[in-house]
Each structure stands twice: as C-alpha cells, then as structure tokens.
Amino acid sequence: MTNNKRCQWADGDPLYIKYHDEEWGRRVTDDRTLFEFLTLESAQAGLSWITILKKREGYRRAFRGFDYKAVAEMTAEDEERLRQDKSIIRNRLKIHSAIVNARLFDDIVGEYGSFHAYIMSFMPGGRRIVNDIPTMADVPVSTPVSDAISKDMRRRGFKFFGTTICYSFLQATGFIDDHVNGCFCKGRI
C-alpha cells in the first residue's frame, strides 16, 4: 500500500500539491536555485505563498532566470521597468532588494565557494535538520539556526530576509525537513 499522506498545508490547490510533492523540503545545492528561493521568499514577505507560486514564471522572466550575476548588474532603469511588470509583485522595495541581494549573494559565493556551503556552515554538525513534526501546529516559524543566518545576512546588507523568511527558505530548500510525521515526503532528500 502506498502512503499518500501529505502535509495539511498542501491539500486542495493543485499548485500547492505539486510544489509540496516535487520541491518543498528537497535538498537544493545549486546556487541559481538557491537564489531563486531567496528571491521568492523575500518577495513573499507579508503575502501568501500561493500568490508567489502563481507569479513564479513572471519572476523567472523578470529576474533573468534567477542568474544572480545578471541580476546583480541590473540598473535603476531595470528597477523602474520591473515596477511596471504585472507578472511580479511590483513593490519598489522588494524589487530593489532582489537586486541588492543578488550582489550580496555573489559576494558570499566568492567568499565560501557556493551559497550552499555558506548555509551549511550554520547547520549543526554540517548536516541538514530533520525535525519531529507530529502536526502542522508543531512547525516552528524560526529557530536559533535561522536567527543566526538571518542576523549574519542582515549584517552583510541583505533585505527582506528576517528569521521567519530565512526559516521558510531553509524549509523550502531542504536544509530543514519539516514535513509532518507520516507525510510520504518525510526524510526524502
């Protein structure tokens, strides 16, 4: 018999189901994909994740396929053009922060060799965390790990990346596995 139980947040909307089943919590090591999630999680601040998922392709086009080096070269004219782009969240501060964050992301890659290596430097024992999550009510919104990463990133100048957004980023990219116990995705890398 196949276990098809999934985390409760993913029930209902087909986009959520696909995201949960195919992406959320899976290990990401590629810097371009990590930059994508950093950008999307930052854009999500104050909004629902489904709003961002529905605009994901727009973000992909607007932010040059999430090539952080190309985004880092974007200008004030690019920012103004993006403020008119209805396929993304047109918040001036969030658009600007994506460009600033790309520059800082590139700095971290230069310093650590990869953004993945940077994040792993904060992980206890250099390992991903698999949490015991009996119910969705047991999922934390932040931890000492997300506090430390967020604090360091803010010190470096990152925008829209507080500890709660950082924790969501860590969950989405598989640094932390917060699938509920019994979910068929639990423990999957």
Q: What would your notes on this structure say?
A:
By secondary structure, the protein is mainly alpha-helical. 52% of the residues lie in helices and 2% in strands. The protein is built from 10 helices and 2 strands; from the N terminus they run ααααααααβααβ. Strands 1-2 form a two-stranded parallel sheet. The longest helix is centred in the middle third of the chain and has 21 residues, at 92-112. It is globular and about 50 Å long.
Distance between the termini: 22 Å
Biggest β-sheet strands, sense, barrel: 2 strands, parallel
Counting helices, strands and paired strands, the structural category is mainly alpha
Number of strands: 2
Q: What's the helix count?
A: 10
Widest beta sheet: strand line-up = 1-2
H/E element order:
HHHHHHHHEHHE
Quick one: overall form? globular
Unreliably modeled segments = none
Helix content: 40-55%
Mean pLDDT: 95
Report Rg.
16 Å
> What portion of residues belong to β-strands?
under 5%
Identify the notable features of this structure and list them briefly.
two-stranded parallel sheet; mainly alpha; 189 residues; 52% helix; globular; 2% strand
